[in-house]
Amino acid sequence: MTIEDAGTKALAVPDRIVQATGIATVQTEHLIGDVGDALRLLDAVERVRGHAHPLILGLQDAVGMKMPAALVLSAISNGRDSAAGVAEQVGTTPGEAELAIAELAALGLVRTTPQLTVTGLGQARLSQLDALTVRVLDVITGILGPADAAQLARLLHTVADGLESAAVTAAVTHPTALNN
User: What is the DSSP letter of 44?
Assistant: First the structure.
């Protein structure tokens, strides 16, 4: 049975106006002309994600920490001096940030008193992660070449900017929707 066969009763929704939020906001602003284009894009993203996953696992093994912990460590290194500040930069809750900070402190990577700071061991881990990240990016730019790598960087920034503005629009338009 197709949608046309089911008729409009099967598709009935309550009479209310629903504002587009998040990705839907971006989608309504920049419609993809062909569903095939969208599916090919999603397939390409999934292929890259699939190949990136073993790289991420390798980086985690090489550095001895999971990526979320590395993000928290990086946030502290960037001057975030509270769980709330770390949570804001990393995009998590303050409670989750507190737990991550406690785990990093137990590993000797951060010090929580007299203030939240990265230890020498934590700085060494960040340096290792930076070096490995540069190697991975070098592989990617080697695959693409300089011009395509620059174009990819521009495109990724454009996508990130669009998603950020969609998230801000959604938060401003529907502040309670984010709490559900």
Answer: H
Of the candidates 83, 79, 81, 77, the residue with the CA atom closest to the CA atom of residue 116: 81
Q: Residue type for 180, please?
A: N
What the block records as the tokens of 101 is 């900070």
Own/partner pairs, 155-159, CB within 8 angstroms, 24+ separation: none
Angstrom CA distances, 113 to 74, 80, 81, 124, 178, stand at 18, 14, 11, 20, 34
How far is the CA of 145 from the CAs of 60, 93, 141, in angstroms? 27, 39, 5
**Residue pLDDT, tens place only, 46-78:** 888 888 888 788 878 877 888 888 899 999 999
Helix and strand tally (H, E) in the chain? 8, 2
Q: 21 with 176: CB under 8 angstroms?
A: no
pTM for the full model? 0.59
**pLDDT number for residue 101:** 96
Distance CA 172, CA 43 (A): 32
